[in-house]
Amino acid sequence: MQKISNEELGRLSAEEARAAGKAPLVIVLDNIRSMSNVGSIFRTSDAYRVEKICLCGFTAVPPHREIQKTALGATESVPWEHFDSTLLCVDSLKQAGYTVYCIEQVMNSTMLQNFEPHVNNKIAVVLGNEVEGVAQEVVNACDGALELPQYGMKHSLNVAVTAGIVIWELFFKLNKKQ
């Protein structure tokens, strides 16, 4: 078995990636403390052609050296926007026709593996702070909640890991619908 070289992978340039078709998926980061997590989410969002990332509240924004350490250039290929508050972001997305889901453990949540997006539905998902999760007022503003089942002693995952699982699952579900 031979590893594939970077040249053989046929990677898009940042310009080509910006122009490429995007999944109808927006990632909303609600007051994320770690710039490494922000960078990791940019990198995953690039890999699965996320439409854009909304950086809300005190979530750090590019350019920043700490974000770049994990993003490895993905801040150049994934569009992003900053909002002073996550509530303003959620309202803006809803006005633009997105259905907004928080990724959170709440009453009546839908397990991610059971979620079936509607055809031609634009989706935004809100990922919460590393300690507090998605703020309750943001949960209240969302159209629904998606949850990742967990079976160990801890009932939380790192936000970048959660983003990776959610983006992967939704990318394939949304592309299957098109």
Topology:
Elements: H1 6-9, H2 14-19, E1 23-30, H3 35-47, E2 50-56, H4 65-71, E3 80-83, H5 86-95, E4 98-103, E5 110-111, E6 122-127, H6 136-141, E7 144-147, H7 159-177
Parallel strand pairs: 1-2, 1-6, 2-3, 4-6, 4-7, 5-7
Helix pairs in contact: 3-4, 3-7
In words, what does this structure look like?
- There is one protein chain.
- The protein has helices spanning 6-9, 14-19, 35-47, 65-71, 86-95, 136-141, 159-177, and strands at 23-30, 50-56, 80-83, 98-103, 110-111, 122-127, 144-147.
- The chain has a single domain, classed as Alpha/beta knot (3-Layer(aba) Sandwich), CATH 3.40.1280.10.
- The chain is α/β, with parallel strands linked by helices and 178 residues long.
CATH topology descriptor: Alpha/beta knot
The shape is globular
Overall pLDDT level: 95
Show unreliable segments.
none
**Percent helix range:** 25-40%
For the biggest sheet, the summary is: 7 strands, parallel
For the termini, the CA-CA separation is 35 Å
CATH class membership? Alpha Beta
Q: State the secondary-structure class.
A: alpha/beta
The CATH architecture assignment turns out to be 3-Layer(aba) Sandwich
Going across the biggest sheet, name each strand in turn.
3-2-1-6-4-7-5
Q: Rounded to an integer, what's the Rg over CA atoms?
A: 16 Å
Strand content: 15-25%
Number of helices: 7
**How many individual domains?**
1
CATH homologous superfamily placement: SPOUT methyltransferase, trefoil knot domain
Find the count of extended strands (DSSP E, 2+ residues): 7
